[in-house]
Every structure is written in structure tokens, then in C-alpha cells.
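This is your field. Pick holes in the following sequence-structure pair:
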Amino acid sequence: MQTKVYAAQSPTTPLAPTVISRRAVGSSDVAIDILYCGVCHSDLHAARGEWPGMRYPLVPGHEIIGRVSAIGGAVSNHKIGDIVGVGCMVGSCRHCDSCDDGLEQYCEGPHGWQQTYNGWLDGSGENTYGGYADGITVDEHFVLKITHHESELAAVAPLLCAGITTWSPLRHWKAGPGKKVGIVGIGGLGHMGVKLAHAMGAHVVAFTTSPNKVQAALELGADEVVVSRNADEMAAHSKSFDFILNTVAAPHDLDAFMTLLKRDGTMTMVGVPDSPHPSPGVANLIFQRRQLAGSLIGGIAETQEMLDFCAQHGITSEVEMIEMQDIETAFKRMQKSDVKYRFVIDLATI
């Protein structure tokens, strides 16, 4: 099946239109006409070859919303015409302990999980091509049901990565009523963390380095906002947090936030820096039995749970729509944090 895409042919070439072949629809497959695709910072890192193991041509995009155009004979969960989503994964071994637990993102199979673009984690097998395209074919297990109103679909797209990346740790560490939760960074991930933690009933404190983001964070649902460069504001929250979700990928001083945790509190990292964070002090962990943890996207079941929760609570991402031809301009703006808070591509423009 011939598919129009925007692809990088090498780390040094801009994304440009081309055509690829998608596989024919198998018995358990769902073919999707893509309507919208979010632009994740991972897309830029991958297209530019800033991570090891990138395979070209590379078609980014793992925040996909579309309409089912065909289904295989064994497909039972989706029908032609349904609005569906595809996130960061399109395959896993399906039988290891993590997959059995519905946590396919931690697949322990021989190849790891299969990324929506750039193929299997270990680099084996054929490449996969993402959502900067007019269509995609995906095994039904990795296709999500979308129940938001069709007028909201563009703003739903980033939930498939930014939404689940923040939802999974918030749920795992039991953010909710009676819990004080911090969200570090108010970008594509952080703004979703604030919205979700607020809707889950937690007392939400947003952390930003920029005083000019204070009002925006309050409007997103934060109960309080701390400018993290202000030592007095930080000190006022010492030993008070049950949980902190740190969405900042740039290297920074983790101890400044670890000291804000209560005894038995946890700070979870979801951003991968391009160089290591300064090593946190062990005493901060030992003397209050604090934990420094990490979390990776989310499994299919919890992604569906997140999508249903967001539909019920009227939650979407804050987005700026772009045409496919403007992706390189969007990449440049994203590098300068010049977006509130996520670009989404209208694939009708491909």
C-alpha cells in the first residue's frame, strides 16, 4: 500500500515528501487514515540522529489520531469509520511478564517493544514508519479507542505520548485527593501533568524557572506555582511533597527537588537528558527514605484508561496546528521552546 509521508533521508537532511510502502492489512490489522499527528521532541532528536541506532529513511510521529479505513478478518475491537489513536508502540512480544501485566513498554522479549517509528528497540527486523503520513497499518492490540468529540481530535493527539507519559507515573504513585504533587517543567509534558494531577484530585504545585509562566500554570490547574530559581519559594515547601513528577530533560540539580519530598516521598523522572544530571546526594535519600525513580510512557491498557479519563473530564492538550510543509519551522521553534504547548500536524495538508 503506497503511503505519502514526510521523511528524513539522513541526519543532515530536512524532512521532505516521499512515498513508502505500508504492509497489506493482515488478519489482526487495522488500517488508519491519519487525521492529526502531534510533534514530540523525540521526533526532532530522532530525525537529526541525536540518539544512537536511528534508521533512515525516518518517518517520525507517534501521537496519531485517525479514522479506520480497513480491518482484518480477525479484528473485533474496531470497525471501519471508528476514530482511533496510535501511540509510541506498535508491537511487543505479548507473552513476557511485563506484557502479561499490560505493561508492554517494559517488554522483556528478545527485541524489546516495537516503536511506531524506527522499528524494534534492539534494531532488528524491518524499519517502522510513523505518523507524519496519510495512513498507517497497526495490529489491533496497539490501536486505542477515542471517545472525545470530533472537534477536539487535534488536541487529543498529544495524549498518546505526553498524556500517557505523565498519567502512568501519576497513577502508579497514587496521585489523588490528600496528596501534594509537584510538576517540574511546564512544557509539552508538564502542562499535561498539571492538568491530569489536578483532575485526579491532588493538590498540585507547578515548578518553573520562568516567572512569566506562573499565570499560565495556574490557568492549567495548578494550585500553587513556585519559581524554582527563587530559594525562598523553594525552601517554603521543604519536606512537604508526597510525589514530584520531573518532566525536564535538560541536566539540572535534582537535590533541589529531592529535599522537598516528605519521608518516603518519590520523585520520578520522565525526561532523558542528552548528558547526565549532576549526581544527587545519597544522604537526601537515606535520611528520609526518599526514592528517585523513572517511568516510561505507558502500557496499552493504561493508555486506554487515560484516554477515557480525559474524555470524561474534558481534558485535551493545548496545541498549535501546523501544516505538514511547516514541520522544519516547527522543529526550530520547538528547540527554542516557542510553542504552547504542543504542535499538531493537520495531515489533510500532506
Remarks:
- The chain has two domains: 2-161+318-349, 163-294.
- The longest strand covers residues 29-39.
